[in-house]
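Final report, closing paragraph on structural work. Over the funding period we assembled a curated collection of sequence-structure pairs, and we close with a single example.
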Amino acid sequence: MEGMKLPTKPRTLPMPLWLQGVFELGQAAVLSALLVVLPIAAVWLTGGFADRTAESAARLAGQGWLVMHGVPLVQGSGLLHVVPLGLVLVPLLLAWRAGRRLARASYTDQLWQALLGALLTYALVGAAVAHLSATPEASAPLVAGALIPPVSAGIGLITGAYREAGAWSRLVGVDFAAWVSRTSQHSRWAGSYAWSVLRSGFLAVMVTLCLSAVLLSVAIGLNWAGIAAIYERIDGGIAGASVVTLLQLGFLPNLAMWTMAWSTGAGFALGTGSSLTPLASTVGPLPALPILGALPAGTLEYGYAALAIPVLAGLLAGWWFFREGENHFDEWLVLHSPHRWLTSTASTLALAVLIGLAAGLGGAAVALVSRASLGLGRFTDLGPDPLAVGLWLAVEVAVGAVLGHAAGPLLEREPRRR
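Its predicted structure, as stored:
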């Protein structure tokens, strides 16, 4: 019998988890940078930046990478701050992929090493880019450059690791289901009720946002001729038009959120002193950005019909809550009062208020994230007012939730058997 052969190559030592995290998120930083570097390089090579050197264009690309992650830039006496949500998805998805790979290579009690190494790497990259891309005209604070980019990367890492682990217990080493099972029955009922309310509010926000995105796409389609005319006036060539288009795609989620604010009645601003609502629009001079050709102008005869969007979202949220069957507050009222008309009314109104509050808080958060400031002149106020959006959305969703929950028994009635 022949003896066992030894391997011809020496066995390699396994890569430490923290080093794997460094490699994975360092790769994500490089790939996301290409999204900014390549368009700027194309414009510079075609003579689009006639007054810029290669070093100046590189610094501009670094600032673009920071802005893509939501890092503010200090320019003169103003502050440029915007979160282009369409572009943020790129590093987030890359980090999501990295989180899955790191979770696959780690034990439950060791995953923190990989995540810590990954996030520290992204923070160091952000600080380095902020330092190297600073110019007399614009610069990013080193602290902001180090702390803000890891936010989107961290969200992607954690959700990716959770997607691979399949449960939070495997991810953090704590079995939440077992912890909940040790609580009292009343605590579990209250928790189930609160969780269903939060999910109903989230559903209302997402339905409002999705229908608003449809409304935005319809507005773009109807005003395509005006958008094309702005493209022709820009006359930036293939490279310039590509950069403008990429920039607009990066801001499309923001515009969808602004449309959501518009559909609630709160509206949004495109500069100090401007206002766009379903009833009337007051807009001053705007930059030559093609997507702005889809903005409504003047008085809209049927603009108030857009207010039906959040009400419809609330109706679906109330119906969804009814289908969940977690109305334990109504059950508690029934145990303490024999008057069914009173308990049903009280529980439905309480439910509508709570769903409206949850949706209002979610809508305010969405409006806050979508806001922007160019730090120049009147363009320091771009986007909706979070407080106004939250209040309008809370009231409209609450009205819809009453209708949806009241109609639940009719919509869920089983068909009669013949």
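The beta strands are 73-75, 78-82, 269-270, 275-276, 281-282, 372-373, 382-383. Residues 203 and 367 are 16 Å apart (CA to CA). We thank the funder for supporting this effort.
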